Amino acid sequence: MSIQERTEARMPVLLVRKRAGVVGETQRTCHLVPMPDDDHTPLALTAYCGELIHRGEAELLAQPSGMPCVGCLFRVPMPRSGELSGNDW
User: Fold this and answer.
1) Using CA atoms, how far apart are residues 7 and 19, in angstroms rounded to an integer?
2) What is the pLDDT of residue 23?
3) Which backbone phi and psi does 25 adopt, to 5 degrees?
4) Tell me: the pLDDT tens digits for 51-83?
């Protein structure tokens, strides 16, 4: 199992960036969004920084791209004790 697969299993987050044309290029930061609890596509997602991202105005990223949202990085929950092993670093 890769590091990415282990991380996704512990901390289910989406990487989301607003589409070009929706916002200016300097605002196209990579946000961290908690994975929705159910299988339905919500009308909007709320990033950890509080940014509201409406359906159709963003792109889902497979990996980080562009500048990260600093607010999201500060607020994303840390893995619980014991979830990281020495192999993760």
Assistant:
1) 26
2) 92
3) -55, -35
4) 999 999 999 999 988 899 999 999 998 776 555
Q: Using CA atoms, how far apart are residues 32 and 36, in angstroms rounded to an integer?
A: 12
Tokens of 84: 């990281």
| Tokens, residue 6 | 């282990």
Residue 41 tokens read as 């596509």
Q: φ, ψ for residue 71 (rounded to 5)?
A: -60, -40
- Predicted confidence (pLDDT) per residue in 2-53, tens digit: 444 444 445 689 999 999 999 999 899 999 999 888 878 889 999 999 999 9
- Specify whether the CB–CB gap between 53 and 32 falls below 8 A: no
The encoded tokens of residue 37 equal 């609890």
